[in-house]
Amino acid sequence: xxxxxxxxxxxxxxxxxxxxxxxxxxxxxxxxxxxxxxxxxxxxxxxxxxxxxxxxxxxxxxxxxxxxxxxxxxxxxxxxxxxxxxxxxxxxxxxxxxx
Length: 99
Fold this sequence. Notes:
It is a single chain. The protein is built from five helices and no strands. Helices cover about 85% and strands about 0% of the residues. The longest helix has 25 residues, at about 1-25. It is mainly alpha-helical. α1 packs antiparallel against α2 (about 30-55) and α3 (about 55-65) crosses α4. The relative contact order is 0.20. The chain has one domain.
């Protein structure tokens, strides 16, 4: 779960850092709106895959790993919530280098 977040987060953060630098030089007031917009979009993006693993985690674990792993859903639900917020905060992080 960590590798896809790093891949997506790094790709987005490189583009975001360039856009944030341009925005800060031209219109510094818009930088907050730009950061919040990206944060919300990443929250929505993260809800899809991690929401599926949270809701259908028990079924996925039972089919793929066997009946003994059905209880792994609880652990997956907690990790899903963690990784949604991890994704949402990964890309906007470099904005502090601009400030």
